[in-house]
Write a structure and sequence with these properties.
Blueprint (H helix, E strand, L loop, with lengths): L5 E2 L5 E5 L13 E5 L5 E5 L2 E5 L5 E4 L5 E5 L5 E6 L1 H6 L4 H8 L4 E2 L7 H14 L2 H20 L2 E2 L14 H13 L6 H5 L6 H12 L3 H19 L4 H7 L5 H12 L3 H11 L6
Helix pairs in contact: 3-4, 8-9
């Protein structure tokens, strides 16, 4: 069963992910909303491995490296990608946007009865391609995010958080090293060291669990950091490159363009155009 992916000319995309479709860790520039009515989801994220219970709306900026690595139910779950420009225009509270831009996951209230029928309606409206329906879905999603912000649970990544997966422990330890140190030079040996495992076995374990190599995960963290700086600061691009952990500007340009399908300068212009309140 393949993942279903529908997009339209307003920048919406939506679909179902069956549980046997596990993409490699990836990034994109939209705000992502996920909802699984039948079972919890386990994510590899910019902040480590996080578990989101069933019937809970999960919201995050998908420029943060992420991947669903486990699904409790055999039934598909909903996902929606919302153009980042839309969210900027909504002028949501600064504290929420700041946390979102730093890779924080947010989840809705436990078993909120509005979420599943809302997802069904949003998806139907998006699939219709009719502008009035798309506009209705846009307004409803904005309203749902505002309700979430007013009564939200923020996923705090710490040892006592109920949302942080305790398994696989070795992979969690490796992601923690990367999360803490991705802006500086990191060696494979340093990343693997807390696990006590042989480096070759640790790298194989990481790839089999996460669908990406340790190096790929490290680079995606650096790209996420760079995207945040490009979107929120006026730092020179060479400064963004070094601040994000890249050893050279050329290496940064190559990696950023490959993932984001545009240059860092083009990405910054797009973010500035989307946020008229930002100083140019």
């Amino acid at each position: 069963m393949a993942a279903e992916n529908i997009s339209n000319n307003l920048g919406f995309s939506t679909g179902f992910h069956p549980p046997d479709v596990m993409k490699a860790i990836h990034q994109h520039q939209e705000i992502e909303i996920n909802f699984s009515p039948s079972g919890g989801l386990t994510y590899l994220t910019a902040n480590g491995i996080i578990e989101v219970p069933k019937n809970r709306l999960a919201v995050f900026w998908a420029a943060s490296p992420h991947q669903v690595i486990a699904v409790e139910s055999k039934k598909p779950f909903y996902w929606f990608n919302i153009p980042f420009a839309w969210v900027l225009h909504w002028k949501l509270p600064e504290s929420f946007m700041e946390a979102l831009l730093h890779g924080r996951f947010f989840i809705g209230e436990e078993n909120d009865p509005i979420d599943e029928p809302s997802c069904v309606r949003w998806r139907r409206d998006i699939l219709s391609g009719e502008n009035n329906n798309l506009h209705a879905a846009q307004l409803e999603i904005e309203a749902r995010l505002r309700r979430l912000i007013s009564n939200l649970s923020t996923l705090t990544v710490s040892n006592d958080s109920p949302y942080v997966s305790k398994s696989p422990v070795a992979v969690q330890k490796m992601t923690e090293v990367i999360v803490r140190g991705y802006t500086r030079p990191l060696t494979i040996a340093e990343i693997v060291q807390p696990t006590g495992l042989h480096p070759n076995y640790a790298m194989t374990l990481f790839r089999s669990t996460c669908g990406a190599s340790i190096l790929d995960y490290l680079i995606q963290h650096r790209l996420f950091h760079a995207a945040r700086l490009l979107a929120t600061t006026d730092m020179k691009i060479i400064e963004v490159a070094f601040e994000s952990g890249f050893g050279s500007q050329s290496r940064f340009y190559e990696a950023f363009t490959l993932v984001n399908k545009c240059s860092p300068s083009t990405f910054r212009r797009q973010m500035q155009a989307a946020d008229p309140g930002r100083k140019k």
